[in-house]
Design goal:
Elements (H helix, E strand, L loop, with lengths): L1 H32 L4 H23 L18 E3 H6 L6 H5 L2 E7 L16 E3 L2 E2 H15 L6 E5 L4 H8 L9 E5 L3 E2 L1 E2 L20 E2 L6 H7 L2 H7 L4 E6 L9 H8 L9 E7 L9 E5 L2 E5 L9 H5 L6 E10 H9 L8 E6 L5 E6 L13 E4 L11 H8 L3 E4 L2 E4 L10 E4 L6 H6 L10 E7 L2 E3 L4 E9 L6 E3 L4 E8 L8
Parallel strand pairs: 1-17, 2-5, 2-10, 5-6, 11-17, 20-21, 21-23, 22-24, 23-25
Antiparallel strand pairs: 3-4, 7-9, 8-16, 10-14, 11-14, 12-13, 15-16, 18-19
Helix pairs in contact: 1-2, 8-11
Length: 501
Amino acid sequence: MIENLSGGVMTEFQEKLRQQHEDSMHRELQALLATANKAEAEISRKDFDGFKKLFHRFLQVKGPAVDWAKISRPPEDSIRPYERIRTEGLPDNISASLNKLAVVKLNGGLGTSMGCKGPKSLISVRSENTFLDLTVQQIEHLNKTFNADVPLVLMNSFNTDEDTKKILQKYKHHRVKIHTFNQSRYPRINKDSLLPIAKDMATGGEVGEAWYPPGHGDIYASFANCGLLDKLLAEGKEYVFVSNIDNLGATVDLFILHHLMSQPAERRCEFIMEVTDKTRADVKGGTLIQYEDHLRLLEIAQVPKAHVDEFKSVTKFKIFNTNNLWISLPAIKRLQEENAMDLEIIVNPKTLDGGLNVIQLETAVGAAIKSFNNAMGVNVPRSRFLPVKTSSDLLLVMSNLYSMDAGSLTMSKRREFPSTPHVKLGGSFTKVQEFLSRFENIPDMLELDHLTVSGDVTFGKNVSLKGTVIIIANHGDRIDIPAGAMLENKIVSGNLRILDH
């Protein structure tokens, strides 16, 4: 009996504690708003409303977000092979279908992990073209080819908005309308006190660490709040194709578009998530599961520790989310109005430069799949997932493995097998500037399977790499691969200097 009593008392105590945390948070947020100017306060008030909801749910939920025993594999028909979608053919009137589409690119990230300042989308990836250039070229090509009007929408964050807007001037005369909106700005909270670490609303310099963009799940609320959702609906748009701007494989697919447009009204599919087969490199990617009669996205952050290895297994969970998503605009409007979007919270712990432990509460755009009607996955070819997260990825997309046409990259016809080589470049190649300085030009990689480079290594002009190549310069040594060298199934180590005289 005592156990129950203490349990009850404890819950009451926890409830009081929760209430205290929430009251203190609301007081702090009010105090922060008081430091903002009028225009800023209006925007921040909307942001804080979203944050309060998230914080409230964070205090309610304890323990892992999923009950592992309730997880099952999605039913056969809920994830369709892309080949089946292709057999349905193309729309009779492609331009009419395209005119009901808008393309949204998630553009909130900085290039810091690749040693670059400013938005990641402004890094040059191919023949002096940035991620943003390639995106604009792709959509302009669609609009010209099919005489259509597909707008490009960029979801920026407070980190990327200013720099992105400056660059947009250069696309004035391109045949693509570009809209931007900002995702929310949420306060990082002290892990111990659960209060914001910000003292006022400023974001520059040192105090920039006090704020964060809350993950791409924020797209739904921000899109609705800024008025763009209503604007696009008024223009007759029915779907958005959402993807990460650094995924060079995420182009508008006319077969998937046709599948969406051709469903009868009562069975309209409101959400398609493109998934692809897992390889060893993708073990951390979110996967689709069946949970309480709904398709649901399961992220590694939600998996109980005891099951992480099982989650990573390629046999049990065979596919992962590419974050290429096709979403119904009227459905977003309905779910926002009903406040029915239930996105699992991802608690992301960080340690700031000064050693302070903070947490940021985030959500993922794909997690909303369970709220939409007739949602499904489409298992697409790997070519639709070509993210550039590291300089190793950059080497692949800059090389002759890919050919470029109207902003789209496709695997070269001259490569005999369609798989991408496995490339691992060491720490000396992490930053883009350093990476570029180590190659006189990009090696021929058409016949490469595996490349590992570690230490102080440079490549001369017209080097050719085939099979498995491993180049290791030990500490203090340097290896210069000479111009015109052809390395096939070779291990190079030790010291090799080539000096101009």
